[in-house]
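Is this the right way to post structure tokens for a design question? Let me know if I should format differently. Anyway, here goes:
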């Protein structure tokens, strides 16, 4: 069964076209755009009109690409924290449907964690116990023996705490410690299993470091370098990976280090799977039921 899955995040909009057959996913095509839907939303509580229009343009582009290359297959669109928390989310849903004919399913934090875990583990071979860590632009999800979603993502942390480099080391450490407190309040503690990171922060850091195993000592060294840098110089280190992320990647790295502090984990594996992969498995099992009325 072939379908397209689109994941609307706080920073990115991701497309995956794939076929699920006999419990396995064959990936046919992927795309990424960075319209930053959630820009400024943490302060205002709503999605800015120009950001909504930018996402509509990306969705129209994706729709046309999918139909031209694969025919009129189902296009499954999900949205997470940026839309979930916005006061004008219903306006955004109608804007997208009017402009593109596509309907959005807003995932709850629990759904996001569960589906992300499924997608992540479909793309990597690791032994249980496994925790999946999803550091997005607007929220962070942990899915293991406990599951939670916190409204702390790379874009939100950068905007809320002024964590756009350069920043003073003491201020950066205060933010790191504060995130650690939020994680502990959510129930996170020492963890002895494997941690698998997904989404933009983990995959970008993996490409910057040239590895799918993010060691805490290497992450600390990267933070040391980026704290005193600026978004332009950070982006220039690896433009094809860091374009559109130079001002928020330090915040995402800080969240990951806070998770390492809290759990005692010294290494995070990277998976390129995520919501869109998990959602295609859900589609293969539940079909038309996933194209019903959007969650509002």
């Amino acid at each position: 069964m072939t379908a397209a899955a689109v994941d609307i995040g706080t920073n990115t909009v991701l497309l995956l076209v794939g076929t699920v057959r006999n419990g396995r996913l064959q990936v046919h095509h992927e795309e990424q755009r960075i319209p930053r839907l959630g820009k400024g939303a943490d302060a205002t509580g709503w999605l800015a009109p120009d950001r909504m229009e930018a996402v509509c343009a990306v969705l129209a582009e994706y729709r046309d690409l999918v139909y031209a290359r694969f025919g009129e297959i189902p296009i499954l669109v999900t949205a997470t924290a940026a839309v979930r928390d916005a006061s004008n989310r219903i306006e955004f849903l109608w804007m997208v449907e009017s402009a593109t004919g596509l309907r959005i399913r807003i995932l709850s934090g629990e759904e996001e964690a569960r589906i992300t875990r499924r997608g992540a583990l479909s793309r990597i071979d690791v032994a249980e116990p496994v925790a999946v860590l999803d550091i997005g632009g607007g929220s962070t999800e942990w899915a293991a023996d406990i599951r939670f979603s916190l409204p702390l993502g790379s874009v939100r942390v950068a905007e809320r705490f002024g964590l756009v480099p350069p920043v003073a080391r003491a201020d950066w450490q205060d933010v790191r410690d504060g995130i650690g407190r939020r994680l502990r309040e959510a129930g996170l503690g020492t963890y002895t299993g494997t941690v698998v990171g997904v989404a933009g922060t983990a995959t970008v850091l993996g490409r910057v470091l040239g590895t799918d195993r993010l060691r805490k000592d290497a992450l600390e060294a990267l933070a040391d370098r980026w704290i005193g840098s600026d978004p332009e110089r950070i982006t220039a280190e690896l433009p094809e990976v860091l374009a559109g992320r130079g001002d928020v990647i330090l915040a995402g790295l800080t969240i990951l280090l806070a998770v390492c502090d809290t759990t005692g984990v010294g290494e995070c594996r990277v998976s390129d799977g995520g919501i869109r992969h998990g959602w295609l498995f859900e589609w293969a099992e539940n079909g038309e039921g996933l194209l019903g009325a959007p969650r509002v």
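Format looks fine. Someone answered above. Worth noting: Residues 49-70 form the longest helix (22 residues). Residues 179 and 258 are 6 Å apart (CA to CA).
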